[in-house]
Amino acid sequence: MEAEAGIDESIRYAFQNHMESLNTAPGWWKEFKTDALESYLKLPMPRRNDENWRFANRNNLDLGKYHFDQQNLSANHQSLIDRSDFATSQSGAYVFADNQTVLANKAPKELRDQGVIWATLGEAIAEHSDLLKDYFMKQSIDLGSEKFAHLHSAFVSSGVLLYIPKGVEIEAPFCAYNWSTSDSGTMYPHTLVIAEENAKASIVEAHLSDGEHPAFSCGVTHLFAGVGSQLNYTLIQNLNEKTLGFQINSNIAGKDSVVNMNSIILGCGHYRSETHGQIKGSGAHVDMRSMALADADQEIDQRTLQTHSAPHTTSNLLFKNALKENSKTIFSGLIKVDDVAQQTDAYQTNRNLLLSKTAEANSLPGLEIEANDVKCSHGATTSEIQDEEIFYMLARGIPKDAAQELIVYGFFEEILENIEDETLSNRTRELIRRKFRSETN
To answer: Which pTM was predicted?
Structure first.
């Protein structure tokens, strides 16, 4: 308890310094942040009997080793910019290093003339305060990381706002790159996407490390899909394995909208991901896919919720994990169907591939259905590579290590084929290959 009190005092002091940098910010933003800090301080750290933290290692959540004051930027900005090239073409791109903007590629004039807003969080607070006030952190956080969501709200200073007006369709993705460069530093990536009626857009978000220093990342992504809109979102998380990471994702899908969310999880020593798909309009569809490749002593903790609150809606969830060495994964997913959500069609699948005898995969799928005319199913499988598969490749001259690698690539392909951008897809495959071969990132 004394240690936690000391950490809280350190955080409170850093927060005072943070607030002093917000002299020109609107009053509601300062009040919002102050309330968030108090909520963070009041909530306890996760406890042993918290169901939302079942199977999770809570001993890795010590925040006392991290610096919450603004860090000094790495001088090697150009190197970060040069490596922030995950898409074939970009409608706009921001590169952040330790919460500060090092590159700003605005949306083209023709998109801005149509009312598209692609702005940093700081720009949004100054120029689009009313819009931000209506949407920022308005989705409920209810999968266990409420305390860390409040910490994010208290300290967040960088991030992106993407607003797509009614009827505007954009093919090339918008990209946000978030780099950790400081030893024991903290960062708070934030992505807010608002698509109005019949709008269409794609966004790519990357969380990356420059070096092997310890760090803390606490990110939030919220997607709002209006009537008939389509949003495609891809997250690449490749932070180093000395990083403690949280990522809280959610979306609201309006009538006849489509939301596709892809997550590629490679990094962090301890990583907690929460995803809440809220299917609120009839005819809406939400697709949530994730792959994680874990090695060494990594713990990847994934919690999901698919909430159907309107009739004639569909959702599909597919989470795949491959585990090497002493790594551990946790998947806990729930499909919830409200009594008004008749003719819901929802699926949830978790598949785990064990690549060592000491890896551990935990699965907790569940259903909570109040309607009587639905089609819902869930399933979880955990298996090892079969000897027959290895023998087949050995007989064709493929070495054992290469055979295992090819099997893992095939295992993940069902996720990767959902990434439409060719450069992004190829870059993702290369990151997987480098990690599998334990090459330096």
So the answer is: 0.95
